[in-house]
Design a protein that fits this description.
Helix content is about 50%, strand content about 15%. By secondary structure, it is an alpha/beta fold. It has an 8-stranded parallel beta barrel with strand order 1-2-3-4-5-6-7-8, surrounded by 8 helices. Helix 4 crosses helix 5, helix 5 runs parallel beside helix 6 and helix 8 packs parallel to helix 9. It is globular. Bound molecules: erythose-4-phosphate. The site of erythose-4-phosphate (E4P) has 11 residues, from helix 7.
């Protein structure tokens, strides 16, 4: 992985542990992942919400009771003033709500206004370093580069993450990088090696991150050998 550079080695300002968010609106998955003691937050989007076939607000209210960390809920309006109104409403639901705003000119204007009002934002659908730069300049608290969707069209998702980390480091932006649209554990591994702030991970991939066939074989062997010990 020659393209990788380590962000944290060269930046004393940002020494926090990488955080893991769950990328889902499914309450059972969130409850299960939270029980593992490793969950720092949740990201949702309208597609994930629609899968649950429940009312939007009630899902958000359930999530905030389970996870004490940033919970991204997406605004869907197109015009700046409408986005600001929608985001303000969403942010009033709970202090941990981060409003996801799609990357676009009206979205940038909204992020600037919301930032001055203290509403936290996550600029989503980021596919280039220049989009991330503009989002950070507008005052976004988070940007979400979609690595899997870039890989899907033969782009290089993690190369984008590396670029964004470098840009933010060059200018001391406090905007945090959420590696999103994660497709497999290697995305998370590379994110951690680069020093990305956060990876938001679907539940099936979070489970895969716990697994290794040699671990399973080792557990079975230790159990079998334990059984061979002389009994009292
Ligand atoms: C999270 O913030 C994103 O909405 C999500 O990771 C998108 O993932 P997808 O590309 O698998 O839909």
């Amino acid at each position: 992985m020659p393209h990788m550079r380590c962000y944290r080695e060269r930046s004393n300002a940002r020494l926090e542990v990488m955080r893991i968010f769950l990328d889902t609106a499914n309450i059972e998955e969130i409850r299960e992942a939270a029980s593992w003691g490793i969950l720092d937050g949740v990201t949702t989007n309208p597609t994930l919400m629609a899968k649950e076939k429940r009312e939007y607000d009630s899902i958000v209210k359930d999530i905030v009771t389970i996870v004490d960390g940033p919970i991204s809920a997406e605004a869907i309006c197109n015009k700046c003033d409408d986005i600001v109104a929608e985001a303000t409403q969403l942010s009033k639901m709970h202090e941990n709500i981060i409003v996801k705003i799609p990357m676009c000119i009206e979205g940038l204007k909204a992020v600037r206004k919301l930032s001055s009002q203290g509403v936290k934002t996550n600029v989503t659908l980021v596919f280039s370093g220049t989009q991330a730069l503009l989002a950070a300049k507008a005052g976004a608290n988070y940007v979400s580069p979609f690595v899997g969707r870039l890989d899907d069209i033969s782009g290089h998702g993690m190369k984008l993450v590396e670029q964004i980390i470098q840009i933010f480091r060059n200018y001391g932006f406090k905007t945090q990088v959420i590696v999103a649209s994660v497709r497999h554990p290697i995305h998370v591994l590379e994110a951690a090696l680069m020093g990305a702030d956060i990876a938001t991970v679907p539940f099936d991939i979070l489970k895969k991150m716990t697994q290794h066939s040699l671990t399973d074989i080792g557990i079975e062997r230790f159990k079998a050998d334990y059984e061979k010990l002389p009994k009292k």
